[in-house]
Amino acid sequence: MFNKVLSVFHHNKFSVSAALSEKNDIENKNIKLGKLIGEGIEGKIYRDANNKNFILKKLYADDIHYIESFAREEVNCFNKYYGEGSAALLESKGTFYIRMYKIPGVPLSSINDNIFPPTAQERFRHMICDLGDKGIMHDDLNFKNILYDIESNTFYPIDFSNRYEEYHSGNNAIKDSINNSSQMRYSWALEHIIENTGSVALMESD
């Protein structure tokens, strides 16, 4: 299972060999929250105090129907994109958590200086193509849900949602709505990358 994860992570220009060299049990229900590192609509994000290679999303919701529909979809998409066994939905003492591998990078929302090289735009498009190849139409690809790793010049999606099945089974109105929403978010992200590409990089790309 973890060999598949490793091959996918190498493809995306970073390695989880350090993570895999340790005994990892992603479905271990022994939950120990570390430092709080983020917070969103669905829950709070913590470091996993039991394993430095994981993070934990503590979900606000305790509605099993919500958990089964939305949280499980996020886990399924994470596993599709990063490899089987890279995320798991857990329940401990009546609280639901998502444990997942810690993905490198910072969100686009925190980047406001000229750090992108000229190839960053193509690398972003590569991420979009990877999502499509894996049958994922991310429904909330905003600036906070795209990480950028400057060392590898690679973009990584997080906080997955998926409208792939809805799109392909829907009528033209549904498809147009999903297309318009996706194109809008794509354009915003690409424009942000272009605006924060260094002046030297812009000259080289002309």
Please give the radius of gyration in angstroms.
18 Å
In total, the number of strands is: 8
Net shape: globular
CATH topology of the largest domain: Phosphorylase Kinase, domain 1
Uncertain runs? 1-21, 200-206
CATH level 1 class label of the largest domain: Alpha Beta
| Domain module tally | 2
What's the quaternary structure here?
Answer: single chain
Order of helical and strand elements: HHEEEHEEEHEEHHH
Task: Determine the fraction of residues in helical runs and give it as a percent range.
Answer: 40-55%
Mean pLDDT: 85
Strand order of the largest sheet: 1-2-3-5-4
According to CATH, the homologous superfamily of the largest domain is Phosphorylase Kinase, domain 1
CATH architecture call of the largest domain: 2-Layer Sandwich
Instruction: Please describe the biggest sheet, giving its number of strands, its sense, and whether it closes into a barrel.
Output: 5 strands, antiparallel
Report on this structure.
The protein has 206 residues and is of the alpha+beta class. The protein has two domains: 2-101, Phosphorylase Kinase, domain 1, CATH 3.30.200.20; 106-198, Transferase(Phosphotransferase) domain 1 (Transferase(Phosphotransferase), domain 1), CATH 1.10.510.10. It is 41% helix and 20% strand. The chain contains seven helices and eight strands; from the N terminus they run ααβββαβββαββααα. The strands form two sheets. A five-stranded antiparallel sheet has the order 1-2-3-5-4. The protein is globular and about 45 Å long. The protein starts with a helix and ends with a helix.
